[in-house]
Automatic annotation (TrEMBL):
The gene is METTL4. Transmembrane segments: none annotated. Belongs to the MT-A70-like family. InterPro entries: DNA_methylase_N6_adenine_CS, MT-A70-like, SAM-dependent_MTases_sf. One of its GO terms (biological process) is methylation. This is Methyltransferase 4, N6-adenosine.
Length: 382
């Protein structure tokens, strides 16, 4: 359970229990056979203890942002205090000092290399997804770029892929590709009740750091969202604090997909002591990001009575210690569970990790599944 505390303002999340719950029992597939492992995501990724906080952040935000500031300031204060009374966000006395591993081979670069391969004709594309593991071994000649891959086991798996080892959660499906090779996901023929996306928004810091490729906002309209959605699908988009990006999602992108904006939430990033990681009034980096939540309506806008049934609470907060890994967002599966049907089909776009029970797509979809991100304890051979 990753929800430490919940009230009318939102939730305090602890990311690690939700991640690690999927890897208590894993099978490691190797040339010499298979063995049982227990894997856990390394704690040091969630040990942000330093706050880059100005001594006296007094500059007020202008216009409508003043309301946002008040919501975040008061809501976070309440949530953090309640979490601390339960023994969370009081610092990490057992912080691990091990250095973080170096980045692994770039998946986005592999996707670019895959474009140089001969194109696959529609007739050659298999109608059904491929299984990650067959007969106790990793499927031979597995093609991660032009087929959806499924892992349907009840336990996780540590498997060799593209010369690296990756930790795969149970009951998951994924496609490693970019816009040019989305057809296998479209042909997957699943309709989803929840779609979460974290686009690689363009901004100056990304261009300077070159940590990942960015995407012009207008290109997001190429995503065939209506082909993925079930009626009343909940669509959630992570948005940076650049006002033009927020306006684009609310005024252009969602209307283009027939998605109606129903709420805006905020992910608030705090240290292990419950302090904002950046000044709330900073003109450069904010300690929060926005989520725009909308409902898909395939034809005419819903009536007033229908809107009452689908609206979510506005201005909710999700408070958590951020990962040290760039763009490693907290899972929304638990906080969104009350707003989707039981057994809902869930899709993450521009994913950099996998979740049990979800389908994930992106050109870095396995990035945070690399075995270097995990600790593994042997449980014996099979």
């Amino acid at each position: 359970m990753s929800v430490v505390f919940q009230n009318s303002s939102g939730w305090v999340l602890d990311a690690l229990p939700l991640i690690n719950g999927s890897y208590q029992r894993c099978v490691r597939i190797g040339k010499g056979g298979s063995s049982l492992l227990k894997c856990s995501f390394k704690r040091q990724y969630f040990q942000t203890s330093k706050s880059y906080y100005c001594q006296s952040p007094t500059a007020a935000l202008a216009g409508g942002k003043a309301d946002v500031r008040s919501v975040i300031l008061e809501g976070t204060k309440s949530l953090v205090a309640s979490a601390q009374s339960r023994g969370y966000l009081n610092g990490d006395a057992d912080a691990e000092k091990e250095a973080l591993p170096a980045p692994e081979c770039g998946l986005a670069a592999l996707c670019e290399m895959a474009k140089e391969l001969p194109p696959v004709d529609d007739e050659e594309l298999k109608e059904h997804p491929q299984l990650l593991i067959t007969d106790g071994s990793c499927t031979p000649n597995i093609d991660l770029f032009t087929q959806v891959t499924e892992h349907n086991s009840d336990c996780g798996a540590v498997v060799p892929l593209m010369g690296q080892e990756y930790v795969i959660p149970p009951h998951t499906a994924f496609l490693l590709s970019d816009f040019t090779r989305m057809k296998p996901l479209i042909d997957y023929e699943k309709k989803f009740d929840l779609i979460v996306m974290d686009p690689p928004w363009e901004n100056k810091s990304v261009k300077r750091s070159r940590r990942y490729g960015s995407l012009p906002s207008s290109q997001l309209k190429r995503l065939p969202i209506p082909q993925f959605t079930s009626p009343n699908c909940l669509v959630v988009t992570w948005v940076t604090n650049r006002p033009s990006h927020l306006r684009f999602v609310c005024d252009e992108l969602y209307p283009y997909w027939n998605v109606q904006v129903v709420a805006k939430w905020f992910w608030v990033k705090v240290t292990t002591l419950g302090q904002f990681v950046f000044p709330l009034d900073s003109q450069h980096k904010k300690p929060y990001e926005t989520l725009v939540l909308g409902r898909y309506h395939p034809s005419a806008p819903p009536s007033t009575s229908e809107m009452k049934e689908v609206l979510l609470e506005d201005s909710r907060l999700i408070v958590s210690v951020p990962s040290a890994l760039h763009s490693h967002k907290p899972s929304l599966s638990e906080v969104l569970k009350p707003y989707i049907r039981p057994g809902a089909e869930c899709l993450e776009l521009f994913a950099r990790s996998l979740q049990p029970g979800w389908t994930s797509w992106g050109n870095e979809v396995l990035k945070f599944q690399h075995k270097k991100r995990f600790r593994a304890l042997s449980s014996g051979s099979r």
